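Notes from the 1:1 (GR / supervisor)

We went over the backlog. Supervisor wanted to see one worked example end to end before approving the batch request, so GR pasted a single chain during the call. The sequence is below; no edits were made to it. Supervisor asked that the structure be written out right there so they could see what the output format looks like.
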Amino acid sequence: MPKKIASELDWIVLGIEKFAEGGEAALIVEKLARQLGSSKTSFYWYFKDRSQYVSRIIAEWKERATTAVIARNEMLEPLSPQRQVQELLLAMFSFNGGGDFLFYLRKLGEGEAQYGELLRQIEQQRLTYMSDLLVRCGHSQVEAERASELVYSYYLGWYERYKSHIVTKESAGQQAYFIMAFIGIGIDH
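Structure output shown during the call:
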């Protein structure tokens, strides 16, 4: 069977999946090439080495898991801040298919300072966005920051607990309702 030429995005998407399953150790170029039905040399058309590949995988994950989520939520600006919080929470609690990506990124960051700093920036971006929404809902800055920390910590624990379960729209809605009540924001219909 002839080998296909895998695109850069093919490599990155598979890399995100494999990183979430086993971290950097799961990114074995030969195995990935076999899974893509491609040759190992196509990897080097796009990435000079595995280090650059890991960097691109993490950048794409950040775009999908943080930047794009925030951008989609910002498009809801015509809605009330309460509704924006509700929609953000629904988005957060509707997705649990990312495996252990965050765990492996945290682990990688322990040994490589640039990834530790990148993770700190990602988490700060998430917390700041939620805090800003909560301030628009009427919380003081201090209350908003504390509530954001609680929401994010709760989400991380929830994710760990339910990452291998099927999440329904109803269960995501229940989580959003629970969190909104906990942080003192009414549901906006």
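Supervisor's comment: Residues 8-182 form a domain with the Tetracycline Repressor; domain 2 fold (CATH 1.10.357.10).
Batch request approved.
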